[in-house]
Amino acid sequence: MKHAEAKEIAKAFIANNPVAVFSKSYCPFCTKAKRLLTELNVNFKAMELDVIENGSEIHAAVKEISEQNTVPCIYIGGKRVGGNDDLQHKHRTGELQKALRGTDGALLHAEL
Ligand SMILES: N[C@@H](CCC(=O)N[C@@H](CS)C(=O)NCC(=O)O)C(=O)O
Fold it and tell me: pTM for the complete prediction?
């Protein structure tokens, strides 16, 4: 797969999902991040880069787009939140809840 094509796939995933998580299925930080989002009833989509076809090419594109070398790499409303530590921190400060409420389609239920 060409790099440009991988970049388009990564960009489309961010644009088309209110909460987009680039993940790896074996990554404990990804598990923690996905667990928190699930607990908060968040409508998120995870792309498991170690499982899907062309995952390593797409991960290379994600690194370039996000300037972040690790997974999870989380986007809310097209904006990069960061990794699991950033997500957990934003949850503690209330910033996460604010970002989710401000993003159309991020919440499965109105209450948070
Ligand atoms: N502080 C980061 C740690 C994330 C991390 O170290 N992830 C590992 C996988 S468990 C990683 O991305 N390693 C590089 C790679 O898989 O390319 C966070 O909280 O998200």
Answer: 0.96
